[in-house]
Amino acid sequence: MSCLPLQKGILYGPIDSRRLGKSLGINLMPTGYKLCSFNCVYCHYGWTEVHALDAAPFIKDMPSHDDVVDAVESALKSRLEFDYLTFSGNGEPTLYPQFATLVERISRSRDRCRPGLKIALLSNSSGLGLPEVKSSIKYIDIPVFKLDAGNEDVFKSINRPFPGVSLDGITANLRSLSGIMIQTVLVTGDPGNVGDEDLNEYFVRISDIKPQYVHIYSIDRPVPNTSIARVLPDELERIAELGGSRTGVPFKAFFIKQQYGHGA
Ligand code: SF4
């Protein structure tokens, strides 16, 4: 079995998600390759083909702002049923040039066509150092950020970030936001992030960030690094319970991953 194919266009789904209800995905990234600032060992789209923090050189391969707004407005005006619009797709959505401007336009379309519909973002957290990306969060109803590690070594081995992206930097940026959700993928093997010390350090970061809640997952599909394995449901439940009691933040364990991006 191989990893999932990339999304073929701007919109995908709607996908039934226990987390978000029926979610219509928005893919801003190229359709011919995965463009991401991470290269996670568990990514269900396979290894990152273009590893970058600056996506400007690849703009010719991405849809224009007008194309994205037109596609979303057509869906909003159609009879298609969905509960959320979710920015995710073939890599890290916040790499998209002038991301905040686009999100503001989508939120205005939503207000005009389907007020009350929620907008979600699934992000790997690496773009939050940019004021442009931080300013987009005010238009997002459900901002979900990835945090898989408690120390830099685990971060580098699990998420394989673009050089210069640090876990400390990400933690500081996440701490500066309020009302965010954290999603975490836990794996065992080489590399893994569920050793006692790994979890202790991870819980310290969650306490520091103080998100609204944390959702934890493991893997249930083919992944690019075959020396990792899934964390079993009982163990995920135990970690969720431990996380809640150590941090005071509500944790929830999920056992089936959803197919709308970011490997989780
Ligand atoms: S899981 Fe998300 S952040 Fe990680 S490589 Fe895949 S698309 Fe990028």
Strand arrangement across the biggest beta sheet: 1-2-5-6-7-8-10-12
Proportion in helices = 25-40%
The end-to-end distance, rounded to whole angstroms, is: 18 Å
CATH superfamily: Aldolase class I
Could you give a short account of the major beta sheet? 8 strands, mixed
CATH A-level architecture: Alpha-Beta Barrel
- The share of residues in extended strands comes to 15-25%
The tally of domains stands at 1
As residue ranges, the low-confidence spans are none
Determine the mean pLDDT. 94
Number of strands: 12
List all distinct small molecules, including ions and cofactors, that are bound in this structure. iron/sulfur cluster
| Class per helix and strand makeup | alpha/beta
Question: Helices, strands, pairings?
Answer:
Layout: E1 11-17, E2 21-27, E3 35-36, E4 50-51, H1 65-77, E5 84-88, H2 99-113, E6 118-123, H3 131-134, E7 142-146, H4 152-159, H5 167-175, E8 181-185, E9 187-189, H6 196-209, E10 213-217, E11 228-230, H7 233-247, E12 251-253
Helix pairs in contact: 1-2, 6-7
Bound molecules: iron/sulfur cluster (SF4).
